[in-house]
Task: inverse folding
């Protein structure tokens, strides 16, 4: 049988306090508490409720992480440019978008976010947020509504959406300008995004194709889109977060209107989806922030009732336990 | 036949209304009109209903509350213009049927 030292390359170390970032399987001795400790992957995954938005709405956009998330735009009704910041417990109002709209996309962090597209005006308007104010920057080349976004404020993708029809268009943002890049294989609107860290890699999943709701998943490698394994549950308007090797998708509509509102949650591992715990309030047209481990869902249909609800996702994480002889 | 679910009305106050432990133990499903579905004959579900001061409803009572809200949404949709109704992104709100 392999010894601990052969596996981890070290003997069991002694610490006065637990290591900051233990890896799964790591064992150590805490000589302050005089206990043997180990780290394991906690696979308890669940949703819980979070603070309610001040402005309930649907078809809004989001950015940031679970404890510092941004909600902006949407349809209350009426259409709104309201921007709110979540601190892990409560939402606080910040300065509004300059261009009021719904069906927009968002990426980035709360101190460095990007909003683009949407239903108002030409639907190409892009705005940049610095934590305090929104500033208009260069427009999308193809104006569109109900698109999705991937990336950060300085490196992002605008994907799919609706002009007078569903589109497969993809544009890459370099911090200054949008540039047309290769289209998705299938045109779709109300698709899910926000999985991927910048314009060099991203995932588009679900949405509405001409034939109806889809489970289709496509991966972008910085040049081309490739079809990947489908979502377990086809739906439009899912949202999510994470990276192209560790993502999460949640919510949406499976078809047929409100009876088809779903809270289904699936984890992406780089090649396929696995279904896990559902959100308590199934809904489409919500927004998201965060990653596969700690994510946030907020807003959605129908506004304003579901439109104010927030749910916090806690995925698997590395947890520390004490070895007990009893 | 034994029922699978029970229903209550409770207003979601936000953080702590449903926590991670409760969510891991039982399945919650929220509906319009602040109607919540949780498992029947379940200790953890009963504890949660007590925590949120939920008002227990029969399935028929809960269905009536959901129907009223859906019908209001349908009436609002019906009052829209033909152009608005023809937008495929704006389907008419559909009926919701609660499970036994």
Result:
């Amino acid at each position: 049988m392999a010894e601990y030292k052969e596996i981890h390359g070290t003997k069991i170390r002694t610490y006065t306090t637990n290591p900051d970032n233990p890896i799964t399987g790591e064992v150590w001795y805490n000589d302050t508490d005089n206990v043997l400790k180990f780290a394991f992957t906690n696979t308890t995954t669940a949703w819980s409720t979070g603070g309610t938005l001040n402005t309930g709405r649907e078809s809004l956009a989001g950015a940031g992480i679970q404890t510092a998330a941004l909600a902006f735009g949407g349809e209350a009704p009426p259409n709104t440019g309201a921007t709110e910041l979540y601190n892990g417990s409560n939402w606080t109002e910040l300065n509004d978008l300059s261009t009021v709209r719904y069906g927009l996309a968002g990426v980035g962090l709360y101190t460095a976010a990007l909003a683009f597209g949407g239903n108002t005006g030409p639907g190409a308007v892009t705005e940049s947020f610095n934590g305090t104010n929104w500033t208009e920057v260069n427009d999308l080349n193809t104006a569109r509504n109900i698109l999705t976004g991937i990336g950060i404020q300085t490196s992002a993708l605008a994907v799919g959406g609706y002009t007078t029809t569903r589109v497969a268009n993809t544009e890459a943002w370099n911090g200054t300008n949008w540039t047309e890049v290769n289209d998705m294989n299938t045109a779709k609107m109300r698709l899910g995004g926000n999985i991927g860290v910048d314009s060099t890699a991203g995932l588009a999943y679900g949405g509405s194709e001409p034939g109806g709701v889809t489970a289709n998943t496509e991966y972008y490698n910085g040049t081309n889109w490739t079809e990947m394994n489908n979502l377990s549950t086809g739906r439009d308007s899912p949202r999510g977060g994470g990276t192209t090797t560790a993502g999460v998708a949640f919510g949406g509509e499976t078809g047929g209107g409100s009876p088809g509102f779903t809270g289904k949650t699936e984890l992406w591992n780089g090649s396929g989806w696995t279904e896990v715990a559902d959100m308590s309030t199934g809904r489409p047209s919500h927004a998201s922030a965060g990653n596969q481990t700690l994510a946030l869902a907020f807003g959605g249909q129908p506004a304003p009732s579901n439109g104010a609800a927030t749910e916090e996702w806690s995925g698997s994480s590395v947890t520390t336990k004490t070895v007990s002889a009893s | 036949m034994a029922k699978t679910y029970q229903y209550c009305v409770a207003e979601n106050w936000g953080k702590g209304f449903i926590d991670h432990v409760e969510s891991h133990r039982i399945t919650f499903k929220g509906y319009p009109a602040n109607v919540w579905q949780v498992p029947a004959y379940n200790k953890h579900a009963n504890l949660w209903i007590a925590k949120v001061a939920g008002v227990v409803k029969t399935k028929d009572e809960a269905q009536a509350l959901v129907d009223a809200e859906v019908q209001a949404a349908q009436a609002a949709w019906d009052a829209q213009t033909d152009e608005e109704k023809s937008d495929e992104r704006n389907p008419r709100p559909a009926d919701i049927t609660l499970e036994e």
Notes: The two ends of chain B are 9 Å apart (CA to CA). Chain B has one domain: 5-86.
